[in-house]
Each structure stands twice: as C-alpha cells, then as structure tokens.
Amino acid sequence: MSNKVAIITGAGQGIGKAIAQRLAKDGFKTGLIGRHLEKVEAVAKELNEEYGSDTAIAKKADVSKRDEVFAAFQEISDNFGDLNVVVNNAGVAPTTPIMEVTEDDMEWTWKINVDGVVWGIQAAATIFKKFNHAGKIINATSQAGVQGNPDLTAYGSTKFAIRGITQTTAKELAKFGITVNAYAPGIVKTPMMEDIAHEVGKNAGKDDDWGMNQFAKGIALGRISEPEDVANAVGFLASSDSNYVTGQTIVVDGGMVFN
Fold it and tell me: Which keywords has UniProt assigned to this entry (predicted)?
C-alpha cells in the first residue's frame, strides 16, 4: 500500500470520525462520506489542518443508495489516484421493543445498515480490481450482532447479517487478494449510543443514565469505551499486520461477549 488511501463512511461523528483520525495519523489519505456534508467537511478540515492540506476530502452520499455510494467512491479514488482500504462504518440504531417494530423500521434500518455495506463492498472491490491490486474491506457490525440485546430486534438483526456478509464475501473475494473483516463495538460514548440509552430509559420510564447503565452492566474492564478504542482495532485491520486475517469479526467491547 504505497499510496495508502482509505474511505470511511459515516465519518462525520463518533466512531467514524475516530477511525478517520486514526487512519490519517497512520499515513492514509482519507475520503470521508456522510449524509450530512457539513459534518464530514468539518472532520476533513481538522485532518487537513493537522496532517497536511491534501489529507482528507469530504463527499455527501446516502449509503442506502447504490449509485450514490459508487459515485462517491469513484470521486475519492480519482482524487487520490488509488484506493486501498474501505471502512463501511455508516449505520443507524433504532431502539424498538419487538411488538412495536414496524415495516418502516425494518426497511429503513436494513437499507442503511445492510444495503449500505453491500454497496460499499461492491464499490470497493470494483475499484481495487480497476487498479489491479489487493485491498481491505472493513465492516461495522456490533456487540448486538454477536449476542442478542433486548429492544434491538431491528438493529441487531442487521448487525448479525453483516457478520454473515463479511464471512461470505471474504470467501468470494479472497481470489483477488481482497480481505473482508468486521469490528463489533460494545458500548461506546457516541451520539448514537446516547440516543439509544435515551430511548431505552424512556421506554422503561427512567432517565438517560439508567438507560446507559443497562448496556454498561457486565463490562469486564469496568468502563464504557471511547471511540478511539474501536478505531485502534480498525487501525490493525487496515494495516499490513492483518494481511493474513479475513472473514473475522473483532469484538471490541471491553469484555462483554466471550466466544
């Protein structure tokens, strides 16, 4: 990876922003994709100020729309002249008790979380093949995709699916030298997690702290993770140290799920 170019979807905040910061620190040129252009532009500005003016560019795309994903990936790879790593990080996390899940809930969550990963894999593999070299695809699953959690039927179902997609495509794309892996965060201090905790607390007639504590119970290391904890694992998967790793899910949850 002489050029070291990475694309990160959902890079405007939380884990995605931390991943962009980690990969820029590791010497990657970074293409940042998000639904809200102003958010990814703000992150790109920070990275360009810290690591050089040509470190990052921002593009707007809705990952549930295949054409938008392909167009954004193409623009970024054209800008930097290469592509080596793709992190399919974008996602949504509705909190809904099973008897309240609607058709709209399922369609919305699956189109973003699952379809978005599939389009990202397709776009990444297309560009890796165009440049005639190997590449790394890294997908966001979740601790909720390794072990079922109450009130997360819609969300958890997508994250279990991503683990399967990761394994399937790792086998399909290995002949091209493309590895496909996933990372499964646990309870992370992000705006998304705060929203989940709020909904869980509200559904139980409790406050936000109560909601967060329901997820924080049983973490062996005794603390909720920071986005940087997850970004560190992605940094490994994006590096040459992981060249012989494919089809795997690395759980980054401080010790909640043990296999």
Answer: NAD, Oxidoreductase
The domains of the chain are located at 5-186+225-252
**Could you confirm whether 155 is annotated as catalytic?**
yes
For the chain, which ranges sit under pLDDT 50?
A: none
What is the value of pTM for the model shown?
0.93
- Determine the Cα–Cα distance for residues 74 and 183; give it in Å rounded to an integer: 25
The reply, when asked if residue 230 is annotated as ligand binding, is no
The domain 5-186+225-252 is placed in CATH, from the list 3.40.50.2300, 3.40.50.720, 3.90.180.10, 1.20.1530.20, at 3.40.50.720
Are the CB atoms for 53 and 70 separated by under 8 Å? no
Residue 25 makes CB contacts below 8 A (sequence gap 6+) with 51
Q: Are the C-beta atoms of 23 and 235 separated by less than 8 Å?
A: yes
- Report whether 121 belongs to an annotated binding site: no
Tell me which DSSP letter residue 4 carries.
-
According to the model, what pLDDT value does residue 61 have?
Answer: 98
Please write the tens of the pLDDT for every residue from 29-77.
Answer: 999 999 999 999 999 999 999 999 999 999 999 999 999 999 999 999 9
13 has binding-site annotation: yes
